[in-house]
Amino acid sequence: MASFTQTKRLLRYRMGLIRLKKMGLEKVFSYTLGKEVGVSAELVRKDFSAFGIKGHRRGGYEVDDLLSSLEKIFGKDRIQNVIVVGMGNMGRALSMYKGFREHNMNVVAGFDIDPAKLNKKFHIPVYSMESLGEVIEAFNVSVAVLAVPEVAAQETANQLVSHGISGILNLAPVLLKTPDHVLVNNVNLMVELERLMYHSGVIQ
Amino acid sequence: MASFTQTKRLLRYRMGLIRLKKMGLEKVFSYTLGKEVGVSAELVRKDFSAFGIKGHRRGGYEVDDLLSSLEKIFGKDRIQNVIVVGMGNMGRALSMYKGFREHNMNVVAGFDIDPAKLNKKFHIPVYSMESLGEVIEAFNVSVAVLAVPEVAAQETANQLVSHGISGILNLAPVLLKTPDHVLVNNVNLMVELERLMYHSGVIQ
DNA sequence: TTTTTATTGTGAAATATATAACTATTTTTG
DNA sequence: CAAAAATAGTTATATATTTCACAATAAAAA
Question: Which of B31, B37, B129, B192 is the most buried (most CB within 10 A)?
Answer without folding.
Answer: B37
